[in-house]
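User: quick one - fold this with iron/sulfur cluster bound?
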Amino acid sequence: MASRNSFHIPEAYEPLLAKVDRPGRYAGGEVNVVIKDPSRLRATIALAFPDLYDLGMSYHGFRILYEMINAREDFAAERVFTPWPDFARELRAASLPLTTLETFRPLSAVEIIGFTLQHELCYTNVLETLDLAGIPVRAADRHGAFPLVIAGGEGAYSPEPMADFIDAFVLGDGEEIVFEALEAAARAREHSTPRETFLRRLAAIPGVYVPSLYEVAYNADGTIASVRPVDETIPAAIHPRVYDISKSPGSVRPVVPLIRTVQDRTVVEIRRGCVHGCRFCHAGMITRPVRERPVEQVLDIVRQSLASTGDSEVSLLSLSTADYTEILPLLRRLNAELSERRISISLPSLRISTFDVALAAEVSRVRRSGFTFAPEAGSERLRRVINKPVDEAEFLDIIESVLRAGWKTIKMYFMIGLPGETDEDLDGIVRIAAQALARAKSIGVHSLTLNITLSLFVPKPHTPFQWEGQIAREEVRRRLSYVRDRLPRRGVELKLSPLEAGILEAVFARGDRRLGAVIEHAWRAGCRFDGWREAFRPDVWSEAFTACGLDPDWYSARKRGKDEKLPYDHLEAAPGRRYLEQQRDLAAEGQVTPDCVENPCGGCDACAKPKEHVLARSRSQDLAAGEAASVPAPVPARAAAAGKRGKTPQTEPPPPVMRVRLRFTKTDALRFIAHLDLAEAIHRIVRRSGAPVAHTQGFNPLPRIALSPPLPLGFEGLGEVADVFLLKRVDLRTWLGELRAISAPKGLEWTGIEEIPLKAPSVQQAVTSFRYRLCWRELGSGTEFVPRVLPVDGAEVAAGIKRFLDSASWPIEIERKGRTQQRDARQFVLSCEGIPPPDGFPAAVEMTIRSQEGTTLNPITILGTMFGGDASAGVYLRAARFPVEA
Ligand code: SF4
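Assistant: Sure. Structure tokens for the protein plus iron/sulfur cluster:
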């Protein structure tokens, strides 16, 4: 039922892609994408990430749901991301709707749009995404024909600010509830169920909150008086869903992005849930109890995922990776399988209290990036208040071990404005930084860089600090300056998160329904991508609050009374209110509550009966004894230092014995990705083929693969070349067959293979010119009118070419690395002539342009100068390139 080739970027969108930054974000066609025929489905959900493709493609929850849903014959999951303002502008100018990336259907054509609300600063992007799809942003304005708009993720636990825009929120883990929602949508479609009835049916699904079926009343002072269901058939309280992640493998065949994204790696969620109980941490409170995957399942997922993606890094995901009860055995087994293949392992989140130097040694075997620690508070006293006890002396020992193991960059995260914070706590931040640098010096490491990030404390819902207020702006500024002025100047790089964004986060984190008007006002006034420093517009937000008669400080800075009804109290997340109140009181006393995996149950009510954790340890105890002999010995902490100042011995990489020249095409979606992204796509396929590729030396070894010179974005490449250096000889015909059998991005086809001498000239030297075929036609209606420069009459085209060829020189200006340079285009063009155009195009030319060591000219630039302007103006232009070797 699934097919890969039946859907292409609609032609009307192609000219738009040529005008925007990183068009690969919108081109689809990636490896592992699942495309189904919509006419044979009962329901489709568009998984919508209200941020850029580059971020959303790294979000693990998205990957899990995409694969689980697409495994069902009758349902489909497609993807949509909020376009960056450049593409949004082009879509609006051309009156084209936002589409999904699989079938390029308008977003309005699916049954459900499911947004992930990862944080509070993505809310305007939800409205932007709906509007670009031609869907009314307010739920009340959406009638039966429009898709159901649902939202999950952390934001769903405090949903009231978005209540006007979302039809239904889903609370907790999405793995099961998404199928119940799809089933309900399919039945509603099959029976033409009225929207109101459909919403009532959804409200009966455990974990679903339909805000339009609840009425909110306010007290005279603006606080919440009540949130009540409209009648007794609607549940008064909603409980989040909890899923045991070991019941399914999650993601083993993730879509491989065509462009570099935030996390280009295989991600395995090894553990869900955290029970350390940091009192500021929303995720740590709402994801209880702990659920771990068995070691064997993790290994199996890693193998499958690497085979399907060609990734070169594996990341073990958890809120606190080192807490995984079998972490060391797992790492050793992974290293035993992966280090020879130059595949590295990363642990994205390590708590200082559970840090083990042996872990550092295990993850350092292939690559070293920076190490990140989050002490959050500067003093031991304040760390006890937030329930994140870290012994400072131990912390410094850990830093020393990390430095001895070879790391040179350490990141530390601290919060400013935590409840009860004093200047002494701020002095603690300065002290830790100074002592870390001194410790580095004492062991001969003079190049340590400490990246310190200070962010504003945000009181989060469903945490013991949910009743707290943020400190006043002036006081935040004073405290930030206090720390900045005292930190050591050398060796520390300080980053401050934007103050106004932190305040806005606090407003929405515990906000009520009235804030919907502010969000809509700010969006209509141009706010989008508020989580992006360069896009955030605090002045516009300030105007929006004023226009709606609301005071942001009332939401962010006001301490809530013990008896105040909170806007999300009807969403009964675990831990419950009683436990949160207890923890709030213990915080005031500076008392620590230990985790409940290694210690007794703390009574938070997340488990139906105490300690319902699902742990890998209990499952793998039997396995451990039998496997001990086959697992490499642990690397002792200091041994990882290899004697001298954190340097591991570097061995010369073995020399290649064979050089293979592969030929391939770059067409379809692949036309819209940049050269470096193409290189990554080629590396992945070669890795997946298992070919013994030679690597460069150093901490970050790269495969020795050289590509032909970059193609301009949007051009087809019909004779591209990749030279691959191999450590062992391969049979060319067999290898080509293997490469062809591996799924590749849409538009990449292997067309040839040959062995060339190891010392043959580089691809850049071998290619002496490029032959181009260009054809064009006027842009169709519905597109913004731009005057055309290129003629569409064959005689006019021929006359322009003749003028050019008859000239002894043809000076042009080109932009290179931000500077204008002069070139003689006539000296570069070896031939140029009109050719019979392909179907649907009135004009076409073929042009051969010289290339010297990679220096050449773009044929569109030359064509433009022949006819006096921008050649792409007002036309739909297609270009294909054929490299010509000497
Ligand atoms: S109920 Fe007890 S064991 Fe379960 S998560 Fe809460 S504190 Fe831990």
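One thing worth noting: The radius of gyration is 29 Å.
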